[in-house]
Amino acid sequence: MDPNTTLTALRDFCAERLGADLAARFVRLARPGFALTEAGPGEAAGHSRFGGRAMLEPGTPWPTCDGLPLSLIAVLDTDALAPWLDGVLPTGTGLLNFFSLDSDSEDADPAAMELSLKYDFMAPQVGRVIAARTTHAVETAPPARASVFDPVPWAASPGFAFPDTYDPAWKTLDLGPDADDIARAMPDTYIHGLLTDWSERPGALDSEDIAFGRPEFPTGSSPMLSNGEDPNLYHHLLQLSGQGEWYIGGDGSWMHWSIPTEALRAGDFTRAIPTPDIW
Fold first, then answer.
1. Helix, strand, coil % in the chain, rounded to nearest 5
2. Residue 53, SS3 per DSSP
């Protein structure tokens, strides 16, 4: 289905359980995204993949943290994803290269561990997103001391993501006059108590790896910004639950990158930051 048809089906699904007015307000929280899974032959979403080489325009500097090269973690081909995103990002954005400081894999440079002790996991120095026009981008070999992970092409299944538990976006939802104080205090619990068959909704994103949409937080946490800004002013770019060769530390932490919504609409990916879920 196309995004408008899926969104209509999703709204109808919710209206049967929440009533038309509350369903319409609730579905406004939905953001288009993609479940990322390993692609079979002919299934890859353009150049989208975990690992491999960066896809950069010639002359683009490789990002570093205090002189140590960051490692290419993933590439998203937004040209292949654009039909579902409906104006989320500028036309012709092309390829998004996601970089991170690798301090935990077997290939990590010893100096990366020292830097990981110096910088917080959410420090902008330890993660970068670089856009490249598809027609100009070329595979770019990493400099010495950067980790290189085996490429895994991604298939991208479209759908709509809703706020996770404790996400500040819930505070923006008007539950209507019939909701009591307990419902207003825990709007996510109230809504999901009415949507008992939520997993069967149209446009569900069934993956721990997600492009765009909204982040999931297995810790039961919420989006955290080290600069103290309102998370509602940011848009999610990529979620990785861990990819075998690479993870960000802790017992099972998930990596996220986010960007101010107005910067996303302007195509200014220099303002993208890491927003991981660490435990």
1. 30, 25, 50
2. coil
Q: Give yes or no for a contact between 52 and 71, defined as CB atoms under 8 angstroms apart.
A: no
Question: 245 with 51: CB under 8 angstroms?
Answer: yes
- Which residues, in sequence order, are CB contacts of 4 under 8 Å at separation 6+? none
Which residues does residue 4 pair with via DSSP β-bridges, in sequence order?
none
Q: Which residues pair with 234 in a beta bridge?
A: 260
pLDDT surpassing 70 at residue 222: no
**How much is the pLDDT for 100?**
94
Q: Above 60 in pLDDT, residue 206? A: yes
Query: Residue 58 corresponds to which tokens in the numbers above?
Result: 């010639």
What's CA 255's distance to the chain center, in Å? Answer: 9
> What pLDDT, on a 0 to 100 scale, did the predictor assign at position 134?
96
Distance of CA 235 to the CA centre of its chain: 8
Residue count (the chain): 279
pLDDT at 20 over 70: yes
How far apart are the C-alpha atoms of 32 and 160, rounded to whole Å? 4
Neighbours of 85 (CB within 10 A): 18
Q: Is the pTM of this model over 0.70?
A: yes
Q: Could you tell me if 32 and 158 are in contact, meaning their C-beta atoms sit under 8 angstroms apart? A: yes
- Alpha carbons 34 and 187: distance in angstroms, whole number: 25
Residue 50 burial (10 A CB sphere; 0-12, 13-18, 19+)? buried
User: What is the pLDDT at residue 249?
Assistant: 57
Backbone angles phi, psi at 7, to 5 degrees: -65, -35
Structural domains for the chain? 3-274 (2.30.320.10)
- Please state, in angstroms and rounded to a whole number, the distance separating the CA atoms of residues 232 and 96: 22
